[in-house]
């Protein structure tokens, strides 16, 4: 017997920011990945959603002090998804490599840089 893998609903504040309705806003449908990007023991949330105005958009969220997901990065990229979370970092946050535009933390937020 095979076990079904869960496709969990993401928090409403994330769905609202990325523009996905509740039926679309699941881990699998928005290519969500939970990764500790700044080595503080709390995982950030990275999504790759193709419902945006520029084709595929990347969003990075961090839990704030009120336990709400706060947007800390957004850039346009290709639809192949996240290709690698790097061991290199900027301002104590790991770099996120996508196929043609990658995210680097500038001290306040992730910004997309064309490769």
SSE run: HEEEEEEEE
The unreliable regions are: none
Shape: globular
Which band does the percent of strand residues land in? over 45%
Helix content: under 10%
Q: Specify the structural class.
A: mainly beta
* Beta-strand segment tally: 8
**Main sheet?**
4 strands, antiparallel
Number of helices: 1
Strand arrangement in the largest pleated sheet = 1-2-3-4
How would you summarize this macromolecular structure in one to three sentences?
With 115 residues, the protein is mostly beta strands. The chain contains one helix and eight strands.
Q: How would you describe what is shown here?
A:
By secondary structure, the protein is mainly beta. The chain contains one helix and eight strands. The strands form three sheets. Strands 1-2-3-4 form a four-stranded antiparallel sheet, covered by helices on one side. Strands 5-6 form a two-stranded antiparallel ribbon. It is globular and about 35 Å long. The N and C termini lie far apart (45 Å). The mean pLDDT is 87.
